[in-house]
Design a protein that fits this description.
The chain is an alpha+beta fold. The protein has five helices and seven strands. A four-stranded antiparallel beta sheet has the order 1-2-3-4, with helices on one face. Strands 5-6-7 form a three-stranded antiparallel beta sheet, with helices on one face.
């Protein structure tokens, strides 16, 4: 009699896991076309900031850092996103040739960013960056359902920095 109840407990304790693999291709990030005016405003703001910092502190190094940052930001803004291949299966997340087991993540969120939504995978290690995956709208339910089998869902909105970069179309 004890053997039967032990067997039943083992059968009940094992959750059903979907072994289906979900894969899609999407842009690395949302690109916003930037005009010459956008770059002009960037360099104008950097110049005003550099002059103000120099007048207040007379720190030449800070001025150099501000100007170099403006050039780096302008250069990065011209970069076109690459296409990434995403794959979810029962063992983890694969982005191109890089694999991340589910055990590396604390939770996931679906974040609305306009035309495309994204999945944000929050890492257990606080200093590791959040992984952001864009996906086609028609795949949202299937992707979210798959991730819910392995990770808790956490409601999240864009934070202050993300809203600012979206506002300046960076």
């Amino acid at each position: 009699m004890e053997e039967t109840s032990s067997q039943q407990t083992n059968q009940i304790a094992q959750p059903e896991v979907d072994k289906q693999t979900i894969s899609w291709t999407a842009s690395e990030y949302i690109v916003h076309e930037k005009s010459m005016g956008w770059h002009g405003i960037l360099f104008g703001a950097a110049a005003v900031l550099a002059v103000a910092v120099f007048l207040i502190s007379h720190d030449k190094l800070a001025v150099i850092v501000i100007v170099a940052s403006a050039f780096a930001m302008s250069s990065y803004a011209k970069k076109k996103p690459s296409e990434k291949n995403y794959e979810l299966d029962e063992s983890g997340v694969k982005i191109d040739n890089q694999f991340f087991p589910y055990s590396e993540f604390r939770s996931f969120s679906v974040v609305e960013e306009g035309a495309l939504d994204s999945i944000w995978l929050k890492r257990l290690n606080r200093i590791s960056p959040t992984i952001v995956m864009y996906f086609p709208p028609e795949d949202e339910e299937q992707i979210q359902s798959k991730l819910e089998q392995y990770l808790p869902f956490e409601s999240r909105n864009l934070d202050l920095i993300d809203r600012f970069t979206k506002r300046i179309r960076f």
